[in-house]
Specification:
The complex is a heterodimer of chains A (about 230) and B (about 400). Chain A has about 230 residues and is of the alpha/beta class. Chain A is built from seven helices and ten strands. In chain B, the strands form two sheets. In chain B, strands 1, 2, 3, 4, 5, 6, 7, 8, 9 and 10 form a ten-stranded mixed beta sheet that branches. In chain B, strands 11-12 form a two-stranded antiparallel ribbon. Classes of the chains: A alpha/beta (about 230), B alpha+beta (about 400).
Chain lengths: ~230, ~400
């Protein structure tokens, strides 16, 4: 399969006061379309930084980042925002749902960036909520949902615009084991049955087992894994 | 962009109940600023309106040359006769000029509200004074008699000053004057005055000089001929003004002062309100930084975020401005107050809150909102998405 994510000699540095810290050192990886990759590593190893680069939330200090056929490290902020809307669905550890909106309104958000009609948006929202098994909770607000249900709504929001890539940052980090497994099964189903490419950051080895491949980072470098350049 | 902005703005507005306390800071701050601004401007407006309504285009007032007001003017009896006989002065059926040679004096009366002494204009008027000023009419009692120490009092003066009711006796110049009537004058400056017979007033004040002559002209167009006649007469050194022009000049200084006061005090309060708005909007942006970052991550543009912060600030300011303007209108419109006029006497007037004044105040409220929302909106737009998401 062709690579949907391709990073070449990526360096990412942060400046903290007078100190410059290099978080990623000449990192090169490729992720194939339809893959489910778990990014693992200790705290400070650079996995979230790598995920942010792949998801177009941040830019590298050096190197190339190609995702979904575009060199995104060269895009402006505005272009990057449009690119994210088209190609990336985000799932966050703490769900990041809008507290004042119902589940269906939350799921509809990415569709407001498209030209779809209101009726079509509603149809797509219902379909996405059905995929995550929450069609009957559409009218509920986040505060009225359990953690697992809220994360399912977040996954529906990530899916609804049919993005090229799902980027998940510790999606089960705030959930108990049983609920976490349900969420991971759901992600696995989306990968296998719907062909979604998923990149997931996790600390949890059990969660990583749900992925097709694992990438291990340590001190900003790839140390082992079955998918790398 | 429109859809994005609408969606984010709707979310922000729905979240206001969760930030009710901080949102009230904008609303109350702006409401108070607007109420103060409107009340002081309403004073200026009311004062101006009162003096402006005193004049008529077909009436002229003649003062000694170089005099700013009646109090500093003097005209001899001979001069007043020359003035009244001049071209352009309207005559009555008997061929007598519709003109009044007058004298003004200051008497001290107690204010009803505070009990403190205030200077009130006593105007000695000629027999034709009420023919040339048909707007003056008695609402109670009767007209003063010549050669008797009797007065009629304007309705506004009765409302503001003690001892001015019909039957009251007012003591000045070593004698007592009886109030025999109360008059209305369409709310103009004369309504703040006491009026008596000119000869009796001159005699009481031991004077033989008049201070002004007010004449009714044949028509407004007759003014120039009348003025030319008087100003080219070598026996006279006089200033001739249309009555409206004279009273507009009299209101200028006080109106200017009140306008300055309104914008000076209002300006300081507006600065305070801007800081309140800034604080509120910064808190709002800060409280929603994760939501804003999430929306930006999903693909919403910075422009939509900026506009939504602006709209929220503007809406809160609009609410504050409307409340402030509404309260000012309810509380102050029509209130009667008095201030020192050009004759060093009190002019009683009504605070006038006009629609233009209300709209202007609401406009300034929106300006405060826009300025208060500007920096928080920029901060929201510049929020680094990855950092904000990580901070959560």
């Amino acid at each position: 399969m062709s690579a949907i994510v391709s990073l070449h000699n990526v360096v990412k540095t942060y400046t903290r006061g007078k100190q410059t810290v290099e978080v990623l050192h000449n990192l090169s990886i490729e992720i194939a379309q339809g893959d489910f990759v778990a990014l693992m590593g200790p705290s400070g190893s650079g996995k979230t930084t790598l995920l942010n680069l792949i998801g177009g939330l941040d830019r590298p200090s050096k190197g190339e980042v190609n995702v979904a056929g575009e060199r995104i490290d060269q895009l402006s902020s505005g272009q990057l925002a449009k690119w994210r809307a088209r190609h990336v669905g985000f799932v966050f550890q703490f769900y990041n749902l809008m507290p004042m909106l119902s589940a269906e309104r939350n799921v509809e958000l990415p569709l407001l960036l498209t030209n779809l009609s209101s009726a079509r948006r509603k149809q797509n929202v219902q379909a996405a909520l059905a995929v995550v098994g929450l069609a009957e909770r559409a009218k509920h607000k986040p505060a009225e949902l359990s953690g697992g249900q809220a994360q399912r709504v977040a996954i529906a929001r990530a899916l609804v615009a049919d993005p090229t890539l799902l980027v998940c940052d510790e999606p089960t980090g705030d959930l108990d084991r049983t609920t976490a497994d349900e969420i991971l099964h759901l992600l696995q189903m989306l990968n296998k049955d719907h062909g979604k490419t998923i990149v997931m950051v996790t600390h949890d080895p059990k969660a990583a087992e749900f992925a097709s491949h694992q990438l291990h980072l340590d001190k900003g470098q790839l140390v082992e894994g079955s998918v790398h350049a | 962009m429109f859809k994005q902005t609408t969606a984010i703005t709707a979310m922000n507005l729905r979240a206001i109940p969760q930030r009710l306390g901080t949102s009230w800071v904008i609303v109350i701050g702006i409401a108070v600023t607007v109420a103060v601004l409107v009340s002081v401007l309403a004073m200026a407006q009311g004062f101006k309106k009162t003096l402006a309504s005193t004049g008529r285009p077909d009436r002229a007032i003649v003062l000694r040359g170089g005099s700013n007001a009646e109090l500093s003017s003097t005209l001899s009896r001979e001069n007043t006769l020359t003035i009244m006989d001049a071209t352009g002065v309207k005559k009555d059926a008997d061929g007598k000029p519709l003109a009044s040679a007058e004298m003004v004096a200051v008497v001290a009366l107690q204010q009803r509200k505070t009990g403190t002494a205030a200077n009130v204009t006593l105007r000695g008027v000629g027999p034709k004074a009420f023919e040339l000023r048909p707007e003056i009419h008695l609402v109670a009692g009767r007209m003063f008699q010549p050669a008797v120490r009797e007065l009629i009092v304007g309705k506004s003066a009765v409302a503001q000053f003690k001892g001015t009711e019909i039957g009251s006796r007012i003591a000045f110049r070593d004698s007592e004057w009886t109030v025999v009537g109360e008059f209305e004058s369409n709310g103009d400056a004369h309504e703040s005055e006491l009026m008596g017979d000119i000869e009796t007033v001159l005699s009481a004040f031991r004077r033989n000089l008049f201070q002004s002559v007010t004449v009714l002209l044949d028509s407004p167009e007759a003014f120039n001929a009348f003025k030319d006649k008087l100003t080219t007469d070598p026996t006279l050194t006089v200033d001739v003004k249309r009555e409206a022009e004279y009273y507009a000049e009299q209101s200028k200084q006080v109106s200017k002062l009140l306008n300055f006061l309104a914008y000076f005090v209002g300006g300081f309060m507006a600065i305070g309100a801007i800081f309140g708005a800034l604080n509120t909007m910064y808190s709002a942006v800060s409280a929603r930084s994760l939501e804003i970052a999430t929306l930006r991550a999903i693909g919403f543009g910075a422009g939509a975020v900026v506009v939504s912060v602006f709209v929220e600030a503007l809406l809160l300011s609009l609410i504050g401005g409307t409340i402030g303007a509404g309260v000012a209108w309810l509380v102050f419109n029509g209130n009667t107050v008095n201030t020192l006029g050009s004759n060093f006497t009190q002019v009683v007037f009504h605070l006038t809150v006009t629609p233009g004044l209300l709209l202007g105040a609401i406009f300034w409220a929106c300006v405060i909102g826009v300025v208060g929302g500007l920096f928080p909106a920029i901060r929201a737009a510049r929020l680094p998405v990855a950092t904000a998401l990580r901070a959560a």
